Amino acid sequence: MSRELNVYLCGNKIGVLTENELSQFSFRYNNTALQPLSVNLPVRTEEYPHSLIYPFFENLAPEGEIFEILTREHISGSKIFSILDRFGGDCAGAVAFYKTTPENNTDNILYEITSDKILQIIEKLPDDPLLTSIKNPPRLSLAGAQSKFAVYKLNGKYYRSDDKHPTTHIIKIANKRFPELLKNELFCMKLAQAIKMDIPDIKLQTFTNRSAAGTVSFLEIKRFDRVIKDRSVQRVHQEDFCQALGIVSGKKYQAGGGASIRDCFKVIETYSKNLLTDITRFAEWIIFNYLIGNTDAHAKNISLLHAADGIKLAPFYDLLSTEVYPAKIMDRSTAMLINGKGKYDSLRPRDFAALFEQLGLNATNMMKNLKKRFSDVIVTAANVREELLQTGKLSGGKTETNAGTEIYSEIISIIARRWEILNS
Ligand SMILES: Nc1ncnc2c1ncn2[C@@H]1O[C@H](COP(=O)(O)OP(=O)(O)OP(=O)(O)O)[C@@H](O)[C@H]1O
Ligand SMILES: [Mg+2]
Fold first, then answer.
1. Domain ranges in the chain?
2. Does the global pTM surpass 0.85?
3. What are the E-state strand segments in 39-165?
């Protein structure tokens, strides 16, 4: 049986996604569509076939174990289509999927998610990504392999998102396999923010769990693809680099024929409205990931923002040190090669210079500017650590929430070692 979904962008219906009996997708923009889903899928009257359109939609779904859980009871047709049908009311960027118009689907009553409820969701989330403990669970689909959900936040209170109130904040929870993952991401994102890279606001929230007499922490990250205008939340479109390149999420790593730094650079070169700024920001992203030891800087961890004033690199997200974890639980291979090398430990300054040269940039200037740009990184990292320790002392009230903060010093040691190599 074939199925259809109406596709919305920024609240306007822009076309219809069809899945045929053989689970093949096709998509056609309607004649009022103004903005494309992707730089890779310009608005046109001709229908887009499966091969061109599937990667964009596939990249909107969660990955890994969460994908498996979401599709456990799936019987027929494409799992991706079923996810978008069931959960595609709020995705990354401004895209949303509905059988009918969004207005018809909302009861317009804001449902508060109390702190007790948040704790309950967090406890169950790894096994219950469907959020079945919430009455009328939100239709929400975010990519990535980590457990997360998103909320509409207003005046310090959390609410279930609905058609009229898209989510404004992403909530990321701890992962038993990777100790102190939240403090790791918090530290790296705060450091990036402190050295004036473009980073969304991020907070480590700690709630007391009355029933278990302990505390539960989560990261609350402000969505950069949402703006509040006239007291309502409006979506701003974004797409990750897999979508911009028209490749499926399985190709987010260069190994196995996936996205390379050159591929990502080409996207920026072709589509960015702020070309010079974005080339610099992209180079800073590469160096920052090297400094903190983030081997997971893949093509879904960098995005384009379709802002009102043009397409540009989105703020950076998902910055963390993977190298603080033992090699046996976290692969040391980098998501993308640098001058043909796939391990940060084997890199020398000449490899970065060669990379920039291969991209057609002035390598000498780039290296000089980048070293200047990051010259305060160690002092800044120490300051960020101090600030976070102070906040930890205050935020838990009577309970200090500084357990596990050794990870800050471990990341600083990696940065110090890498900074020395970069300057050798
Ligand atoms: N602050 C933000 N604002 C808007 N969208 C975001 C933000 N942070 C992340 N996203 C979107 O959500 C997706 C998942 O987020 P993120 O990469 O942080 O999750 P993850 O599960 O840790 O990913 P990974 O699988 O790479 O470990 C991103 O690919 C991006 O599209
Ligand atoms: Mg990610």
1. 3-98, 115-233, 237-373
2. yes
3. 95-98, 148-154, 157-159
